[in-house]
Amino acid sequence: MQIQDHSAAHIHTTVTASAYIADDWAQSSARTRALLLRALASALDIERETLVRIAAEETSLGSARLHGEIDRTRFQLNGFADYVEAGHAFALTDDPALAEAPPAGRPHLSRVRIPLGPVAMFSASNFPFAFSVLGGDTASALAAGCPVVVKAHPGHPKLSRKVFELARAVIAGQGLSAALLGMVEGAGIEVGTELVNHPDIAAVAFTGSFKGGAALWRLANARARPIAFYGELGSINPVVALPAALATQAQALAQTLAASIEFGCGQVCTSPGLVVLFEGADAQRFEDTLRDELREKPTHRMLTPAMKRTFDAGVARLLGTPGVQTLLAGSADHDETAPPRPVLARTSAKHFIATPALHEEIFGPACLIVRVGSTDEIVDVLGAIGGSLTVTLWGADEDTPDVRRVARRATQIAGRVLFSGVPTGVAVTRSQQHGGPWPASTQPFTTSVGYEALERFLRPVALQSAPAWLSARAGQPC
Ligand code: NAP
């Protein structure tokens, strides 16, 4: 499918239309927003067969996975509708006037939040529904009261257009302005650059690579008026298997981990790219099972030929690094349309810590085992990674000083710490935190998954001695 390269004039028209209606949408009631979000969710369901067919052709992700992703995206849209109706978008704190407050009494203060304005939303390639046109960023921005301009991902242009058309029809059916959701397309960096630089864009939500995210984050900060840039980037998601876990479940855990590494052909931001194991017989059993399981896993074509090329280059870099032993070499053909084969390698803590190139995400089914000999080494390996969306810690049930040290370091470098299971699969709920310290995300104190994601698009304002009519709006912007 031909990707349109939208001109600067088209981007300007789209963004200014969005800015024009931003105040109206900011003032909208919880009911109006919830009705829209629920109608968008229903439209995805009604058109699901067509959407899945187009998505399967463009992404190779397979219909079971894509149906599941539609379900998750609908759940998310409906969830934000419930969240807004429960009053969370208009939540405020209110301190009445107090004559006795030192030194001379205090006035009535209400702390409310107002929507930022038009949000530029960069779709990701690997979740063509959940992190694309009607994904979590769009749902949370609309729920917060912000119009959205989508930068469609060139990996699924036909699907992006179909979902966009469908959304536009829903918006019209609700009697709302079409400009509530705009979309721009382009296969090069020019379109995204133009969008982020547009003076009417008030914030950016980005899901994608570290390279792309970091470039756009710099751009957002270099504007005459810098804006918030919420970038969800890549991650290596270490899994630490402590001896207590391996002693009893080495094989079962290795099987579970192999399925997680292979999920979506490894093209998932939470894919486990690193396993930390204590030297010993249990570690060897775990490693052998993991290698055998991965060897048998079926894979499918990667999302784009460019991703396959990047994967092949990452694997060559990994396996060619001094001090790294190859356990599974993947495929040698370097055919960019052929499915990749899983890759497994091993190194020592010393080599890992001393080699920054080993800390980088390899987007695809590749995993590096790091053998350690002490708790100090686990802590240092995690410290060398610096920032990750997740850390998984198996075998941490006993409260010991060593377990506490590892758990403490895990919480210092990750947005989400799991004590069982695998990191792939991110529940949409209020307690979710999807975003870890740099380089996992640009704003680690916010989340892009879960209902708190809405907070990213609201700015606090203190209303001092507000008139009765304004206080009566109870947090709903005027
Ligand atoms: P990508 O290559 O960074 O592309 C994402 C979007 O950004 C595309 O629309 C791309 O447009 C644009 N872009 C990239 N670099 C740009 C630049 N320098 N200037 C302007 N626009 C730019 O990401 P992807 O294709 O989705 O690759 C997958 C990556 O996303 C992986 O690293 C994965 O871990 C990460 N990811 C993270 C999360 C998360 O929640 N943290 C979720 C899913 C995926 P063009 O292609 O047109 O340039």
UniProtKB/TrEMBL annotation:
The keyword Oxidoreductase applies. It comes from the Bacteria. InterPro entries: Ald_DH/histidinol_DH (IPR016161), Ald_DH_C (IPR016163), Ald_DH_N (IPR016162), Aldehyde_DH_dom (IPR015590), Aldehyde_DH_Superfamily (IPR050740), ALDH_KGSADH (IPR044151). GO terms for molecular function: oxidoreductase activity, acting on the aldehyde or oxo group of donors, NAD or NADP as acceptor. SUPFAM superfamilies: ALDH-like. The keyword tRNA-binding does not apply. Pfam families: Aldedh (PF00171). Gene3D superfamilies: Aldehyde Dehydrogenase, Chain A, domain 1 (3.40.605.10), Aldehyde Dehydrogenase, Chain A, domain 2 (3.40.309.10). Residues 2-422 form the Aldehyde dehydrogenase domain. Keywords: Oxidoreductase. PANTHER family: ALDEHYDE DEHYDROGENASE-RELATED (PTHR43353:SF3), SUCCINATE-SEMIALDEHYDE DEHYDROGENASE, MITOCHONDRIAL (PTHR43353). This is Aldehyde dehydrogenase family protein. It comes from Paraburkholderia acidiphila.
